[in-house]
Specification:
mainly alpha; Multidrug-efflux Transporter Regulator, Chain: A, Domain 2
């Protein structure tokens, strides 16, 4: 079977049950708005532009009516749910998700990867705010158990940044949690701040790398920019972890 990335976007599949999931209906009955609605509860930030973008790169395929309107099936809903979960939960890049889908299409087992309707979430899992959420200092304190005074100190040294209303991004609980862990391990404010400064520098480089896409006004180009920056952030974080581990090993010799 051809790889997912080589599929023709929007092409009506002659043998739709060859694509995963095999045990769900592939009858195209959902308009794109209805298709999106099926996933909004789990992915409230899902936009139509993201659906169209994933179609252009072959991760999902719509069926087309005689008037060229997109239609999707229950199987297509599950397929997109799988893509979005792998991005959110495992931080996988799209090309790797495409390879997983190719294996699923071929009927191969994928170790440690299950579809959303088969996934069990532990009650002990950390509940993270939705991307785009703005949090008050008190809410960050409640989520992390870190005192308001310690959160104010992280703002003062430049590790945590508030907007004009004094609110923080959805990443604030993670930043506070890990910064506090470092301080408890003996790192001082200057050392913790140096990590924040480095992260800002890398963020500027990542954003500059998608300047061409950002300059375009099409929804697909904007979605491509978001995807590229997300994948670059994952690669940089993994590279940094490898470099850090290697340098620690060298210093300990």
């Amino acid at each position: 079977m051809a790889s997912v990335s080589s599929a023709i976007p929007g092409e009506i599949r002659e043998n739709p049950t060859e694509t995963w999931p095999h045990d769900l209906s592939h009858e195209p009955t959902l308009k794109i708005g209805e298709f999106r609605e099926r996933l909004l509860r789990e992915f409230p930030k899902l936009e139509l532009s993201k659906i169209r973008y994933y179609e252009t790169i072959g991760l999902i395929n719509s069926h087309r009516t005689a008037s060229n309107h997109r239609l999707f099936s229950a199987a297509d809903v599950e397929r997109l749910r799988f893509v979005l979960q792998q991005q959110r939960d495992l931080y996988l890049p799209l090309d790797q998700i495409g390879e997983l889908l190719r294996q699923l299409d071929a009927g191969e087992d994928i170790e440690n990867v299950a579809s959303g309707r088969m996934r069990l979430v532990s009650d002990n899992d950390i509940q993270r705010p939705q991307v785009g959420t703005r949090l008050s200092p008190a809410e960050v304190s409640d989520l992390t158990g870190v005192s308001l005074s310690d959160i104010e100190e992280l703002v003062k040294i430049g590790v945590l940044k508030a907007d004009s209303r004094g609110r923080f991004t959805s990443q604030a609980p993670e930043i506070v949690r890990f910064a506090s862990m470092l301080q408890q391990a003996g790192f001082d404010a200057r050392q913790v701040r140096s990590i924040a400064v480095s992260a800002h520098s890398h963020a500027v480089n990542v954003v500059q790398s998608v300047a061409t896409d950002r300059a375009k006004r099409t929804s697909v180009a904007q979605e491509r920019a978001l995807t590229k920056t997300g994948e670059a952030a994952t690669i940089i974080s993994r590279l940094y972890r490898a470099l850090l581990t290697e340098n620690i090993e060298v210093e300990l010799r």
